[in-house]
Design brief:
single chain; 116 residues; six-stranded mixed sheet; 2 helices; 6 strands; 22% helix; 42% strand; globular
Protein backbone atom coordinates (compact mmCIF):
# COMPACT_ATOMS: atom_id res chain seq x y z
CA UNK A 1 0.00 0.00 0.00
CA UNK A 2 2.84 2.38 0.78
CA UNK A 3 4.30 1.80 -2.68
CA UNK A 4 1.06 2.82 -4.43
CA UNK A 5 0.77 5.94 -2.26
CA UNK A 6 4.40 6.86 -2.95
CA UNK A 7 3.92 6.38 -6.69
CA UNK A 8 0.75 8.50 -6.66
CA UNK A 9 2.48 11.27 -4.73
CA UNK A 10 5.43 11.21 -7.14
CA UNK A 11 3.04 11.44 -10.13
CA UNK A 12 1.25 14.45 -8.62
CA UNK A 13 4.60 16.15 -7.94
CA UNK A 14 5.75 15.61 -11.53
CA UNK A 15 2.50 16.99 -12.95
CA UNK A 16 2.75 20.02 -10.66
CA UNK A 17 6.30 20.71 -11.83
CA UNK A 18 5.25 20.51 -15.47
CA UNK A 19 2.34 22.89 -14.91
CA UNK A 20 4.47 25.38 -12.98
CA UNK A 21 7.16 25.24 -15.67
CA UNK A 22 4.69 26.02 -18.49
CA UNK A 23 2.35 28.35 -16.61
CA UNK A 24 2.78 31.82 -18.00
CA UNK A 25 5.02 30.73 -20.87
CA UNK A 26 4.36 30.96 -24.56
CA UNK A 27 6.11 30.00 -27.79
CA UNK A 28 7.99 33.08 -28.99
CA UNK A 29 7.49 33.78 -32.70
CA UNK A 30 10.48 32.57 -34.71
CA UNK A 31 10.76 35.19 -37.46
CA UNK A 32 13.93 34.25 -39.35
CA UNK A 33 17.20 32.37 -39.04
CA UNK A 34 20.83 32.73 -40.07
CA UNK A 35 23.43 30.08 -40.73
CA UNK A 36 26.71 30.27 -38.85
CA UNK A 37 30.18 29.20 -40.04
CA UNK A 38 29.70 26.11 -37.82
CA UNK A 39 27.11 23.98 -39.66
CA UNK A 40 26.00 22.49 -36.32
CA UNK A 41 24.59 25.87 -35.21
CA UNK A 42 22.00 28.31 -36.50
CA UNK A 43 20.78 31.57 -34.97
CA UNK A 44 17.02 32.09 -34.89
CA UNK A 45 15.45 35.47 -34.21
CA UNK A 46 12.36 35.48 -32.04
CA UNK A 47 9.75 38.12 -31.29
CA UNK A 48 8.74 38.43 -27.66
CA UNK A 49 7.34 40.89 -25.18
CA UNK A 50 9.56 43.54 -23.64
CA UNK A 51 11.23 42.08 -20.57
CA UNK A 52 9.99 38.53 -21.20
CA UNK A 53 12.88 36.14 -20.53
CA UNK A 54 13.55 33.20 -22.80
CA UNK A 55 13.07 30.09 -20.66
CA UNK A 56 13.72 27.22 -23.04
CA UNK A 57 14.06 25.87 -26.50
CA UNK A 58 13.18 22.63 -28.24
CA UNK A 59 14.69 21.36 -31.48
CA UNK A 60 13.32 18.38 -33.42
CA UNK A 61 15.54 17.25 -36.26
CA UNK A 62 14.43 15.09 -39.17
CA UNK A 63 16.16 14.21 -42.43
CA UNK A 64 14.52 17.07 -44.36
CA UNK A 65 13.55 19.62 -41.69
CA UNK A 66 14.36 21.18 -38.33
CA UNK A 67 11.51 22.35 -36.11
CA UNK A 68 12.44 25.01 -33.54
CA UNK A 69 10.38 26.16 -30.57
CA UNK A 70 11.62 28.91 -28.24
CA UNK A 71 9.60 29.53 -25.07
CA UNK A 72 9.41 32.82 -23.17
CA UNK A 73 7.78 33.67 -19.85
CA UNK A 74 5.27 36.52 -19.66
CA UNK A 75 6.15 39.29 -17.26
CA UNK A 76 3.09 40.75 -15.63
CA UNK A 77 4.75 43.54 -13.66
CA UNK A 78 5.14 46.03 -16.52
CA UNK A 79 1.49 47.04 -17.04
CA UNK A 80 0.30 48.64 -20.27
CA UNK A 81 3.83 49.68 -21.28
CA UNK A 82 4.75 46.07 -21.99
CA UNK A 83 1.75 45.31 -24.17
CA UNK A 84 2.62 48.12 -26.59
CA UNK A 85 6.06 46.87 -27.61
CA UNK A 86 7.86 43.77 -28.84
CA UNK A 87 11.54 43.01 -29.17
CA UNK A 88 13.46 40.61 -31.37
CA UNK A 89 16.19 38.51 -29.82
CA UNK A 90 18.77 36.13 -31.32
CA UNK A 91 18.86 32.57 -29.97
CA UNK A 92 21.67 30.19 -30.91
CA UNK A 93 20.41 26.69 -31.67
CA UNK A 94 22.72 23.68 -31.51
CA UNK A 95 21.98 20.92 -34.01
CA UNK A 96 22.77 17.23 -33.72
CA UNK A 97 23.59 17.05 -37.45
CA UNK A 98 24.77 19.79 -39.86
CA UNK A 99 21.96 21.95 -41.24
CA UNK A 100 22.76 21.05 -44.86
CA UNK A 101 19.75 21.71 -47.10
CA UNK A 102 17.15 21.10 -44.41
CA UNK A 103 14.23 23.48 -44.03
CA UNK A 104 13.73 25.32 -40.71
CA UNK A 105 10.17 25.40 -39.32
CA UNK A 106 8.58 27.06 -36.30
CA UNK A 107 6.40 25.26 -33.75
CA UNK A 108 3.30 25.68 -35.94
CA UNK A 109 4.99 24.13 -38.99
CA UNK A 110 5.50 27.46 -40.79
CA UNK A 111 8.69 27.76 -42.86
CA UNK A 112 11.13 30.19 -41.24
CA UNK A 113 12.90 32.34 -43.83
CA UNK A 114 16.69 32.37 -43.96
CA UNK A 115 18.47 35.72 -43.84
CA UNK A 116 21.94 36.11 -45.24
Amino acid sequence: MLTVATAALAAVAIIALILVDHFGTYPARVTEYTRTPDTYHIVVYVGLGVGDPIVGQDVREEADKITVTVRARRRTDMGDFKSSFAIYAPVTITLHDPIGSRQVLDDSGRTVPETK
